[in-house]
Amino acid sequence: MAAAAEVGGDKYRSFIHCESERDTVWRNGAPPNYDVVNKLFEAERTQVWPEGSLEEKVQWLLKTWEMELVHKVRPEDQKTVNSAKYTASTNGEMPGRSPPPELLVPSMDEGPD
Fold it and tell me: What's the pLDDT tens digit per position in 54-76?
């Protein structure tokens, strides 16, 4: 996992500065810079996982997944999920669908007596 830092990448995330990311569409026009966040993480964390451990792999996966979800515009640029099968919802609603009207407009019957 730490090998990414040796080639100019992020120490805790992959798929930011790789050659395979040359055609990636980034939300802000360029890959994010996590230098400040990584320094704070290193100063504040309470556990340093052994290199190659399951815990380190999960930490790497979650940090990489979050970076891709937030900063990569096109789902096909994401490497941590299969964009053809991945779906997300909020409160049971799929993206692009409007919430039921009863969630948007309060009922007149619900006010104080």
Answer: 999 999 999 999 999 899 999 88
Tokens of residue 46, six digits: 């309470």
CB-based burial label for 42 (10 Å; 0-12, 13-18, 19+): exposed
User: What pTM, to 2 d.p., does this model score?
Assistant: 0.68
Statement: residue 106 has pLDDT above 90: no
Give the DSSP letter string of 91-113: TTBPTTSPPPHHHHS--GGGS--
Q: Render the burial of 74-90: b for 16+ CB within 10 Å, e for the rest.
A: eeebbbbeeeeeeeeee
